[in-house]
Amino acid sequence: MVAVPDGQGAAQAPASRPAPVGRPLLSLTLAAMLDDVNAHSGAVYLLASHEPVLEMAVSAGLPRAFAAPWERVGLSAPIPVAEAVRERRLIWVGGEHEMARRFPRIALVLPYPFALAALPVATATTVYGAAYVTWPGSHPPDLSDREREHLTAACDRLALRLQRAAEEDRPMRHEPDLLTPAAAPAGTLGSVEATRMVARLPYGLCSLDLHGRVGFANAATAELLDVPVSRLLGTQLWAAVPWLNDPIYEDRYRAALLSQHVTSFVALRPPGDWLSFRLYPSTSGLSVRISRARPVSEMTRAGPQRHDGSPRLVTISHVLSLASALTEAAGVQDVVQLVADEISPAVGSQALVVLGSRAGRLHVLGHRGYPDAHVVERFDGLPLSEQTPGTQALNSGVPAFFDSREQLERLYPSRNATPDGMGAWAYLPLIASGRPVGTCVLGYAQSHHFAADEQAVLTSLSGLIAQALERALLYDAKLQLAQGLQAALLPSSLPPLASIEAAARYLPATQGMDIGGDFYDLVSSHGRAAAVIGDVQGHNVTAAGLMGQIRTAVRAYTAVGQAPEEVMRSTNRLLIDLGTELFASCLYLRLDPARGVAVMARAGHPPPLLRRPDGKVKVLDLAGGPLLGIDADAIYPTTEVPLVPGSVLALYTDGLIESPGVDIEDALADLGRRFAAAGDQPLDELADTLLQRGEEAGQERPDDVALLLLRVRPLG
Fold it and tell me: Is residue 436 over pLDDT 70?
């Protein structure tokens, strides 16, 4: 095993692995722990060799498949055993709501009522592993002093024994799990199994072991399931009966074992017979009573059939799918839309409000299902000190479920004055990284009973929504900052010039942060006009800030009367002196309408297009130098281009002509054709026309786009 330093681990373990310890030390310790505190399942983890990973060495009470996602656990993982090792203390989780709030990954897979305690197995200097035990959902919400003392003492004794074993080069290995003995041979009924059947059910019909395998089935069971007893014995019930092979029914079996609560469901036996299954769990398995059910229309809760307007419980696979979808939500409105489109329909709610928490008040981030916006305005700006369901849920971190209007108004009489037309509500606190970020309110049009398993699933979903919302709030804040910075750095308007007409456009990328380093500017200096367009590498705040510095530098060098080649050289040296390790392409030109020419200097930028008055378009092949920021001694030669009145120059960044799967030469040729066809339009219309490529097809823009159009007016 790898030893973890104090607080995280300690000395290195031996490289070789001698023969394992003979006595089943881990199994005996775990069994004693379960007996001492009346827990019904648990496991012991050992630290893996040469890596910060906990490996499950032995489990007891439940099939290992229940904890399959946590067979190997990284020490940084957000689950109780890893946290117990990191913090060197006992971690207590008192129920499904607390599990969903603190450890949503576990609640996502096991949304059942149970309590859990996790402890480090460690001496004063070395961590050897961890252990956890679980109790049924009926366990009190707090761990008793007696239970705490017994668990801590057992883990301390185990740590000392592991220390002695390590000193003697006797490493631990995994041991067989502690489960109930195998089922009796097919076709027989042993006295032990018969005793268990009598203890669990008023009459025996069917018995399952902890793995769901049938140990006994009577003739009535075979008749109701329409499967011979010989095919049932020794096989899992849902595997032997094809129409029971549904994750929902297996989920009921898992819920019964983990919570140790009586669980029931109904299932349709083709073609039209409904059967009722009632599961009576114990620490050794389950007894199942099967009987004919009432017509499904008379039931208030049933199996996986569809009811018009009735909610259906979200399955584990559905929750995992929703979790995956939430990871794709970028901004706050994406989160609201996804909750409205996928989560609300899945849980049967008809309306929702997502509230954020800022400066001690609630703020409406988004809502759906309320045709009258005034209904949700009462939430906006509400102080967290107010006694309302939303503030109480957020302040306490405990979800609140109200089955009916009467139940809600009895606890919160002030709601009488602000009806929203709903008949039931779920107030889910959104807690991320231990910090409240908001509340999600789900409204149901009719009265709705929130069963324990449904409350657990909704609480698990609230943890996922909270994490997505926290990311989205951070993303929106960064995006707002970046867009504000970029808007401040780009010119708000172009200066009017007597001999030049100008129009400009900027489009952010539709991927990433929607911000980049593209820039443009038009400057009047010494009776002449200068124009610049460029593209700083990157799509972030750094690129936008550097873009502003370059634009300011170009204006300054132009104002002091530097020639185009000197402006480029000075800007290049500035960029290198800043030490940003970012590069920039740039095109700078000095317009002299009196002489009918433009002097241009280029630094790795796409060539501009010139449209003559006769409609012909030419790609200007300009001399140039390397990108700005590469070579401090770079030279940027200039090219003089003749201009006549009516000519139009198109300066652009590469985002206008580059797109996945399109050859850049073909894209440039297409731009030239559209420029030639529409070049007589007013410049604002022409700019919109040139930017339409890809917009009509709804294509994504992987890069931002800047466009600057200049038309030469007749003198006088």
Answer: yes
Report residue 375 CA to chain centroid gap.
Answer: 30
Measured CA to CA, the distance from residue 626 to residue 686 in angstroms comes to 31
Residue with tokens 């979808």: 325
479: enclosing H helix or E strand = helix 452-489
Cross-strand pairs, 534: 519, 586
H or E stretch covering 621: none
Cα three-residue angle 636-638-639, rounded to 5 degrees:
145
pLDDT tens string 540-576: 667 777 888 888 899 899 988 899 999 999 999 998 9
Would you give the DSSP letter of residue 187? T
The helices-and-strands tally (H runs, E runs) of the chain is 21, 27
Tokens of 70: 């946590």
- Residue 51's pLDDT is 73
Could you identify the residue written with the tokens 């095919």? 231
At 251 the three-state DSSP class reads helix
Between the alpha carbon of residue 400 and those of residues 207, 377, 407, 522, the distances in Å are: 37, 21, 11, 59
Encoding tokens for residue 333?
């409105």
Q: How far apart are CA 674 and CA 656, in angstroms?
A: 13
Instruction: Specify whether the CB–CB gap between 199 and 189 falls below 8 A.
Output: no
CA distance 621 to 634: 19
Q: Answer positive or negative: Cα dihedral of 221, 224, 227, 228.
A: positive
Interacting residues of 453 by C-beta distance below 8 A, sequence separation 6+:
111, 112, 255, 313
- Strands of 81-212, DSSP E: 91-93, 114-122, 127-136, 206-208
Phi, then psi, of 206 in degrees rounded to 5:
-150, 140
Give CA–CA dist 208/240, Å, rounded. Answer: 13
Decide if pLDDT at 265 tops 50.
Answer: yes
Distance CA 207, CA 281 (A): 10
SS3 content of the chain, % helix, strand, coil (to 5): 35, 25, 40
**β pairing state of 624-625 and 597-603:** parallel
Query: Read out DSSP for 513-571?
Result: TS--EEEEEEEEETTEEEEEEEEESSSSHHHHHHHHHHHHHHHHHHHTT--HHHHHHHH
Write the secondary structure of 628-656 as one string of H (helix), E (strand) and C (coil). Answer: ECCCCCCCCCEEEEECCCCCEEEEECHHH
Residue 705 near residue 652 (C-beta atoms within 8 A)? yes
What is the C-alpha to C-alpha distance for residues 450 and 586, in angstroms, rounded to an integer?
Answer: 63
Q: What is the pLDDT of residues 652-683, one digit of tens each?
A: 998 888 877 778 888 899 999 999 999 899 99
User: How many C-beta atoms lie closer than 10 Å to residue 637's C-beta?
Assistant: 14
Cross-strand pairs, 521? 532
User: What pLDDT does 63 receive?
Assistant: 83
Amino acid at 109: V
Question: Using CA atoms, how far apart are residues 546 and 536, in angstroms rounded to an integer?
Answer: 7
Token pair for 256? 């019964």
pTM of the model: 0.47
d(CA 202, CA 31): 30
